[in-house]
Amino acid sequence: MPSRRGPRRSKARGCLGTFRTTVAALSGLARQRWGAARIAGQPPTPLACIVVLVADLRARSAKLLWIIVACDMADNKMIKTVGEHWVCATLARHKWAPALTRDGLERTDILAVATHLEHRPTIEIQVKTATEGTRLTSWPIGLKAQEIAKSAYEWFVLVLLPALPAAPRAFVVPRDHVSAATWIAHQHWLTDPDAPAGRRNAGLNQARIQLSVWERYEDRWDLLDVPTADVPVLLPSWLRERAQEKRVGLPPGHPWAEALPVWG
After folding, report:
1. What is the structure's pLDDT at 77?
2. How much is the mean pLDDT over the chain?
3. Structural domain of residue 43, as residue ranges?
4. Angle at which helices 5-39 and 46-93 cross, to 10°
5. DSSP assignment of the chain, as one string?
6. Closest by alpha carbon to 15, among 70, 54, 57?
7. Would the pLDDT of 98 be above 70?
8. Could you give the number of structural domains in the chain?
9. For the whole model, what pTM was predicted?
């Protein structure tokens, strides 16, 4: 699987090359306009030159912006694809029959049937993939991803793609655990009384949760065999402590609001 460092460097080199080409073209344009004006006996004012250059730069910058966006979209799409297919392969190794859903289906990237269990339950999995491999690595958990489960068979698999030749890592987490952890961690960060006033204002839609929160869920594919309500809470103990503080609490409507479960 490709490391993200390679595509990032290639994208940077490509964008830098485009920028250099643009600068060279603008320099040539300025020389042409200035020379033509001098031949006509009407030297242009500096302001006139600036107006011409800005107009040309606006046209060229739009092209440059689309190149950058297209590179980034291709990069992210590849990472997403690697994560989803790797999860499918790993599920199959654990005797689940997986199938990728179509793009655009909310909350579910993979449906899988347990061929090794007598009642053959079907589970829904949403995959999120991040690169690198330090404890500061984080996954963006948007508002849709923070919604509580609608059944006892909704899961997240958070995939970490380190640089080659290291193997991918997976954190298998019930949806309600992700919902609670994201709310608690973000609200604690947002309302931390020790933080400088006015410096933290990112909303829940920008929440990112670090690897350290999910560490005890690593490679816990065995948890998929039981309904999510029966899965022990493997989140860090500090999250339970923060959830009981008024400034933090739990997401509205979360099933733990009535009584916090015992952390495993």
Report:
1. 82
2. 81
3. 5-78
4. 160
5. ---SHHHHHHHHHHHHHHHHHHHHHHHHHHHHHHHHHHHTT-PPPHHHHHHHHHHHHHHHHHHHHHHHHHHHHHHHHHHHHHHHHHHHHHHHHTTEEEEEPPTT-TT-SEEEEETTSTT--EEEEEEEEEES-STT-EEE--TTTTSPPSSTTEEEEEEEEPSTTSPPEEEEEEHHHHHHHHHHHHHHHHT-TTSPTTS----GGG-EEEHHHHGGGBT-GGGGGS-GGGSPB-S-HHHHHHHTSTTT---TT-GGGSSPPPB-
6. 70
7. yes
8. 2
9. 0.72
The answer to whether residues 136 and 202 belong to one domain is: yes
Percent of the chain with pLDDT over 70: 70
CATH of the domain at 240: 3.40.1350
Are 50 and 131 part of one and the same domain? no
- 71-85, 169-183, 196-210: segment of lowest average pLDDT: 71-85
132 pLDDT band (50/70/90 cuts)? confident
- Are 107 and 28 members of one domain? no
Same domain, 110 and 73: no
CB–CB of 137/210 below 8 Å? Answer: yes
Q: Is the pLDDT of residue 4 over 70?
A: no
DSSP 175-236: HHHHHHHHHHHHHHHHT-TTSPTTS----GGG-EEEHHHHGGGBT-GGGGGS-GGGSPB-S-
Report residue 133 as tokens: 């491999």
Beta bridge partners of 154: 124
